[in-house]
Every structure is written in structure tokens, then in C-alpha cells.
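If you are new to this repository, start here. Below is one unmodified record pulled from the training split, so you can see the exact layout before writing a loader.
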Amino acid sequence: MPQYSPNEPPAHEPPAHTSRSHAPQVQATTGVEEFGYQQAMKRGTGRFASFAVAFAFVSIATGIFTTYGSVLNSSGPAGIWTWPIVIVGQLAVAFIFGSLAARIPVTGYSYQWTSRLANPVLGWIIGWISFTFLAIVVVAVDYTIASTVLPVLLNYQGTALNAWVITGVVILAQAFLVGLSTKWTERVNNFAVSAELAGMVALVLLLLGVGFVAKEANFANLFSTGAIPSEGYLSFGTFTSAGPWMLGFLLGAFTIVGFESAANLAEETKDPARVVPRAMWQAVLASGVLGFLFLVAVTLLAGDPVELAKSATPIADVITRTLGPVVGTALLVLVVIAIFACGMVILMSGVRLVWAMSRDERFPGWQAWRKVSPRFGTPLNATVLMCVIGELILAIFSTRTDALFGLFAAATLLPAIIYAATVALYVAKRRSLPPSRGFDLGRWEIPVIAVAVVWLVFELSLFRDASFADPWTYVLIMLVIGAAYLVYLLVTRGGARGLAMPEMRSIDAELDADAAAGHETPQKAQGTQERR
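And here is the target side for that same chain:
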């Protein structure tokens, strides 16, 4: 299995002026000075808070509550069996992300990794795609509260107008927390994650216990295709359409994403090279196991899956029928808490990415967004920007009757592109990576890469379905906007050299040059051996 470095590092960190040729020594605690930055925000994020950030972004309560009905309509109850496959694939991706995070524990995750290991132009493209994903997924998640949860919880008629207003208020509340206090943002998130974990475990036990005692569990549901014809169910579809069973993968593909958000808070995390990789894969594993048990419990008690598929809130219907209205209401409250925390963490992750790119003078209007508020210790300006962008995206989608599907589809496609690009980067650069500072794939590297590549190729093939035309259009529009700004950067800065990362040098080249000159120190020799 992937392993953590057993050796404890020296208690001190090298000063900011230390030569880059001495940088490769393995350390568990890495100062951002090594990467050409000054520490701008307080390191206060601990192990549970880092895990909570990754788990809250994934948010199985949010994902399952939102997409279970869609799976019933596209794949039937049997679609839940795609979930374990998604978990295996995303766990492999999380391991690769962890391996990169342990080597370059800097805010900006894939943007930083690609810029430093490949080239800054590719890094900027990945950063822009990541920003596009985070900007739209926060709206997708928050829109769920207003469009599907609150109308049932508070018993009122949902409309496009009140969904727009409520979602806008939710985004403002999240931005208020993120902009004014990282400590309170994490406290709220820690509470929400603890409640979600405890609530989901309790729901699984109650559903299975009451279902079996009342003899309401129907094992046939687990393998039923519902209203979907069984003939051709397992087909791969055509060039422009995916088969019914393939569409079932969207349940897990939409839900089990965002674990990399822990890496986007690396500069605020204590001992990030050890804590962040563990937080990511543990969030995927915990979400996967608990989420699948919940899916099995709900499907066993689904009753008539064809009728259930007609409901806008099938999960709440099953729980209310099985456990009563009080527990059903409690579930809806839990879902609201989970969705709020999920959107808040997404917003915070987007703010950190904008700030990281602006610090490198890469983001439009970077002069304003790179500032950290001396009073609040947060990138307050970048928070305002993400809030405004979220409100604009919300306004664009607000009049569409299929707004929720469009938002979710885009929020599923974009991370698949980011993950595929990051895994490709790892495959191309794995033999020349800096030494790990706390997490390494070891002898499992090749199997993990193989699983991740196969999964991501398969996942991307799902989006050939004609129903994803709008999300692809959105991606292309954002890429065109980004390309225009990238051209502006290249022209005004004299080409790709003008985008070089701070203190970005080839450490291996420096060590090899020193060795050839006969000046290799024991520490450098040790660093060289570790990379080999």
C-alpha cells in the first residue's frame, strides 16, 4: 500500500535565502519559502480539519440526495452497483494526488504541480479549468438547497424565482464566513462533517434494522432495472449516446469529487506533506464505504422503484415512509447542513486557487486578488470575486427549467478533465519528481496508475452522450475566454519565459552539475539517491 515516510525530519526549516541546490532534503514540514513565496496565512488546519475539508467537498449526503433520482430514471436501481467501481477509480486518483501533494505542498494544487513539473503555460490552463469547475460547482451544490430540499422541508411551492433568491443568499452567507474567518469556517465545517458522519451511520443502521424487522426489504430491487428495459441494458451505447448502465456511473462520478480541496489549503495546514495526502484518500474511502451502505439500504426499501423514480426527493420519501416523518425531517435538516458546508468548502477552495494564481500574477485583475486581509488573515478580495462570479453564473442559469441538470453535468465533466490531466502529468514526470516528504506510492505505483488511467478514460467516455452538449459548450466558452487572457499574458510578458514560476529551477540539474564539479556534499548525494 502507499506508505508514509517513517523518518522524522530535522526540527528546523532552511531559511528563505538557502540555495535551491540544498532543497531536496526530505522534510515533513515544508516552508513555502522553498517555492519562492513568503508565508502569508496562518498554519492552523490540523488533521481532522483537513479531512473534513476533503470529506465536506465530497459530501455523500449532498451527492446521493441530489442524483439518486436521476440514476433511477437513467439506469434503474441496479445503477448503484457502479458506485464501488467509481470508488476504486477515484481512490487511485486520490493516491496520485497525494503523491504530488507530498512533493509540492503549495496552495493551488494541480495549477502548481503542472506549472512546476511540466511548464507554466500548461499549468495556467489547468488552473483556469480548475477555477471554472469551482465557480460552477458551488452554484450547482447551493442550488440544490433552494430547488429540491427547502420546498419539501418547509412545505412551500418551489419556483425559479425563489430558488434564485435563496441560492443567492446562501452563497452570500458562505462568502461571509470564508472571507471573515478561516478558523470559524473550519469550525462550522468540522461540526457539519461530524453531523453528516454520525447522521449517515445512524440512518444506515436504522433503515436496515427497521426494514428487516418490518420485512419491507426487497432484495430484488438491488438488481432491478426499474423502468429501463433489460434488453441492451449493459450495452456501451453508440458514438453519441452512453448505455443505461454507463449512465449509472454519474452517481459516483458527481459525488466522489473534490477530495483534492485539502491540497488547496496546503499552506494553511500543519505538516501538509503528511496530513494532506492522508486526508484525501481517507475522505474518498470513508465516503465510498458509507455511501454505498446507504445506497444499498435505501434501494432495499425503495418499494416500487418505478413509482419512486417519479419523485423529486426519492431519498426523503423512502426514509419518511420507513422511519416516519420526524426522522425524514431530520434527514432533510442534515442534508441542508451538509450542502451548506459542501458549498462553503468549494467556495473556500476556489478563493485559494484564485489567490494562488494571482500571487503569481496569472489571474485577470491579480493586483487585487493576491492581497491577504491584515485584519482577517484571509484573501478577502478573492472571496468577494468568487461570490460575485457565483451570483453571475446563478443568474445565467436561473431561468432554465433544467438548470440543475446543466449545473451538475458541467460539475461532473470538469473534474474528470482535471483529474485526467493531473494523472497524465504524474505518468510523464514520475521518474523525475522531487523527493516525497511524507507519502509515497512505493511498489504500488504502477497498479495505481493503471487503475487511475483506465477509470478516467472510461469516465470521460461517458460525456459523449448527447445530453452533455450544454456542459461541453460551457467548457468551450470558458476555455475561449481563458485562451484570450493567456495570449494577452504571453504577448505582454515576452512569451512563456515571462510565466516562469517563482524560484522555479531544475534541482536535479543543479545537483548533477555540482557532482560533476566534484562538489557534491553528503546531503546532496543523499537527495540524489532518494530521487533514483
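Two things worth knowing about this chain: Residues 120-154 form the longest helix (35 residues). Residues 163 and 328 are 22 Å apart (CA to CA).
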